[in-house]
Design a protein that fits this description.
321 residues, alpha/beta, Rossmann fold, Alpha-Beta Plaits, 4-stranded antiparallel beta sheet, 13 strands, 26% strand, transport, antibiotic resistance, ATP-binding, ATP hydrolysis activity
């Protein structure tokens, strides 16, 4: 018998007046895994997490988190779950990181060691003095920290109680490349320790790098889900990318290529040809470019990525996250 899921959502509906933010969404998160939820702004990602966290009551459907109803059983569930809100919201701006984390640790039975956690996330290096005149050690008020520093504080706050399950809403937003890498390593360590992680992100490479399971949603519904490799292998694997003048006649190019080919101008002057790539296809493409006096700049042959899958599902008319 398979283990019980850490999160199970069935036909979830959440409305705000006339707007349906989540429309019949179903999702299952296996324990001890990292699940990434992708989708454009307004897709329903944050609302879904807020229902799972017990901050919002569903209008229809069922939600179970660690086997409990997050709305009715919040008092029992909260000690077992860590929450990082979008952009690190929810804390008093005058609070100092070390004081905040020490306070939160005292609310839990077996918290993580606060100084260790601060060192692990680089919070011990924050400037300023605390009330005892100590420099560093997270003595700077939150309102004086950068966006990336506040993100690290919010992540530490979600983890300090040693949760079984963590909900992270865009955990690396505003972080520099090193901060992103540090966070990724920490999330890998959490998974290895058996902690379940559910995160939303606008960074598709982050989802591809971290997640055991990826869910792509739009308009409050699941479009597709699976492991990153399953999603990538579910579409044509080969793609040719090249640059040229904007607004080329892609219809003319498409007519010259095999029937299974797809041609897109993914950005002004940036083109993709999706098909089974072989020498004949490459020759046809370069011949068409030569006949139309086009220099195919930076021509590359590669494989489909999770970003390619995402863009195809969301549609060329939507903005990528």
């Amino acid at each position: 018998m398979s283990a019980a899921p850490a999160v199970e959502i069935t036909s979830l509906v959440k409305r705000y007046d006339a707007v349906t933010a989540v429309d019949g969404l179903s999702l299952r998160v296996a324990a001890g895994t990292i699940t990434a939820v992708l989708g454009p702004n307004g897709a329903g990602k944050t609302t879904t997490l807020e229902v799972c966290e017990g901050f919002r009551r569903p209008d229809a459907g069922t939600v179970r988190v660690l086997g409990l109803d997050p709305w009715r059983d919040g008092a029992e569930l909260r000690p077992r779950v860590g929450v990082m809100l979008q952009e690190g919201a929810g804390f008093y701006p005058g609070a100092r990181p070390e004081e905040l984390l020490t306070h939160l640790a005292r609310l839990h039975a077996t918290p993580l060691d606060v100084p260790m956690l601060m060192v692990r996330l680089g919070l011990d290096r924050l400037g300023g003095k605390d009330r005892e005149g100590r420099r560093g050690r997270g003595g700077t008020p939150l309102r004086r920290l950068s966006g990336g520093e506040r993100q690290r504080v919010a992540l530490a706050a979600a983890l300090v109680g040693r949760p079984e399950l963590v909900f992270l809403d865009e955990p690396t937003a505003g972080l520099d490349p090193q901060g992103r890498r540090d966070t990724w390593q920490l999330l890998d360590e959490l998974r290895a320790a058996g902690v379940t992680v559910v995160l939303t992100t606008h960074l598709i490479d982050e989802a591809e790098r971290l997640a055991d399971h990826v869910v792509i949603i739009d308009a409050g519904r699941v479009l597709t889900e699976g492991t990153p490799q399953e999603l990538i292998s579910g579409v044509s694997d080969d793609v040719i990318r090249f640059g040229g003048p904007p607004r080329l006649d892609v219809g003319s190019l498409l007519a010259a290529l095999p029937d299974n080919a797809v041609v897109r101008e993914v950005a002004p002057g940036s083109y993709e040809v999706t098909a089974t790539v072989d020498p004949r296809l490459l020759a046809t493409l370069t011949s068409w470019c030569a006949a139309n006096d086009i220099l195919a700049e930076g021509l590359q042959v590669g494989h489909r990525s999770l970003e390619d899958v995402y863009l195809e599902l969301i549609g060329a008319g939507r903005t990528a996250p």
